[in-house]
Write a structure and sequence with these properties.
Blueprint lengths: L34 H23 L4 H9 L7 E5 L4 E5 L7 H4 L8 H26 L16
Antiparallel strand pairs: 1-2
């Protein structure tokens, strides 16, 4: 299925967020997450390229995308460089588990919609990371393993 919507603007990456605060992320102790460089790469085409690829394949509906835009979830994406793993890490926004109680959006009616939105945003975030790493990032990881690692 193709999602025929306008490409949103890339998020503003906030340097004050430490990726180690995310429950699902582990990064090196290095403070340099290269968010400024990643922001530039996103604006220079990585974001649009990834979005077009994702929109061609996603199962998210236009009604679900409208909810995403009305909740401004795209602006909550975070991308950062994980030097230790030589990869782009990310945190995808999503609809919270208590969406009914919190009345997050009046048009959300089912767990199926919530799951579709959360899965779609996660898939998009992963694709952005892959496009950045494969097609835009030219730097080498600066992490060097210690010389005294045990051999197995």
């Amino acid at each position: 299925m193709t999602l025929d919507v306008e490409t949103p603007s890339p998020p503003t990456l906030k340097s004050a967020v430490d990726p180690n605060e995310y429950d699902d992320t582990t990064v090196s102790a290095d403070d340099d997450y290269r968010r400024g460089q990643l922001s530039t790469l996103l604006r220079e085409g990585a974001w649009e390229e990834a979005f077009e690829m994702w929109a061609e394949e996603t199962s998210m509906t236009e009604d679900e995308w409208r909810i995403v835009t009305e909740l401004d979830l795209v602006s909550q994406f975070d991308f950062f460089w994980d030097d230790f793993a030589d990869r782009v890490g990310y945190h995808a926004p999503g609809i919270p588990e208590d969406w009914k109680v919190r009345e997050v959006h009046p048009d959300l009616a089912s767990w199926k919609e919530v799951s579709s939105i959360n899965a779609g945003l996660t898939e998009f975030g992963q694709l952005v990371c892959e496009v950045l790493k494969d097609d835009y990032i030219t730097w080498e990881s600066e992490y060097d393993a210690p010389d005294d690692l045990p051999e197995f």
